[in-house]
Amino acid sequence: MPPDDDRRLVALYDAHAPSVWRYVVHLTGDPAGADDIVQETLLRAWRSPRILEQEPESARSWMFTVARNLVIDEVRSARHRHEVRVAELPERGREDGTDALFESLLVEEALAGLDLEHRAVIVHAYYGGCSIAEVARRLGIPEGTVKSRLHYGLRALRLALQEKGVTR
């Protein structure tokens, strides 16, 4: 766009955009939507160089007509017909925790089916967050025994959960 056209477009915006915006807000009641309509109107003026060369009154009339037609097109659009305006946005959906609760009950049941030695090692290591050395110290058994009981205890736990349909 030549520099002279840039100046004319800026002058067109300065002279007419506020009144076109008020007109669109009057038609729609939507200030944010009015911004979009005014922007599209000015874009169409920029694409139509003859508008930049017209007298200010003719350009103003042209811009009001284009803005009105854009409002009508928006109201007729499928997007507008299917949108439902509400005063407040709905709350975001939240997980209700039912699945997690159900799974924790199944794990608790499966743990209860293990023998006491295996269950104690798994509970200390996984639920207590203890290291192998800490579990060994707390239970008074060697670290190798802790590792062995963890291995076989987890294997038995996996089998019990498979029987309940929780894992593969």
Automatic annotation (TrEMBL):
Keyword Lipid metabolism tagged: no
Biological process (GO), any one: DNA-templated transcription initiation
Keywords for this protein: DNA-binding, Sigma factor, Transcription, Transcription regulation
Keyword field contains Membrane: no
InterPro entries the UniProt entry points to: RNA_pol_sigma-70-like, RNA_pol_sigma-70_dom, RNA_pol_sigma70_r2, RNA_pol_sigma70_r4_t2, RNA_pol_sigma_r2, RNA_pol_sigma_r3/r4-like, WH-like_DNA-bd_sf
Pfam families in alphabetical order: Sigma70_r2, Sigma70_r4_2
Occurrences of domain RNA polymerase sigma factor 70 region 4 type (ranges): 106-157
One term of GO molecular function: DNA binding
Domain (RNA polymerase sigma-70 region) ranges: 12-79
Superkingdom per UniProt: Bacteria
NCBIfam families given in the database record: PRK09645.1, sigma70-ECF
Name of the protein in question: Sigma-70 family RNA polymerase sigma factor
Species, as recorded: Agromyces tardus
